Amino acid sequence: MPVIDAITDLEALSLTFITEHDASIERVWQLWADPRQLERWWGPPGWPATVTEHDLTVGGRVRYHMTGPEGEVAAAWMRVTEIDAPGHLRVDEGFSHEDGTENPAMPAGECDVCLEALDGGRTRMTVVFSYASVADLELVTGMGMIEGFTSAAGQIEAVLAG
């Protein structure tokens, strides 16, 4: 289980997930940089992700959807705001309608990804999701974001293994 800590901070309006992996920082970066690898872990088990657009440059977009066991579709987007490979990625992110257009009725926020090389060729990944209000944070946690991201990140080791 790569998630070693999940922190909900109502004052900072954020959710923080910390994972560690037996892989180099460059290898862990590929989890984000390669859309085929991203879709192998981003959706939790039972909700596989399909990445339909992947432009990992500042101003670029990542569009994807997750498909549930009954065929339900949860679509979302990311807009890259900062990138410094292989250590840092920041995106604005939110939910989409099934046609890919942004859904303003759902919370949008920011996702900040920091990768840190550790001794022994290991890498720590810290992912911080930030929202504009307690209501938005409570809505996403109520939708199961903590459990969803934790179980999604649990698939990373298999992706890193090949």
Automatic annotation (TrEMBL):
<dbReference type="InterPro" id="IPR023393">
    <property type="entry name" value="START-like_dom_sf"/>
</dbReference>
<dbReference type="Pfam" id="PF08327">
    <property type="entry name" value="AHSA1"/>
</dbReference>
<dbReference type="InterPro" id="IPR013538">
    <property type="entry name" value="ASHA1/2-like_C"/>
</dbReference>
<protein>
    <submittedName>
        <fullName>SRPBCC domain-containing protein</fullName>
    </submittedName>
</protein>
<comment type="similarity">
    <text>Belongs to the AHA1 family.</text>
</comment>
<feature type="domain" description="Activator of Hsp90 ATPase homologue 1/2-like C-terminal">
    <location>
        <begin position="22"/>
        <end position="160"/>
    </location>
</feature>
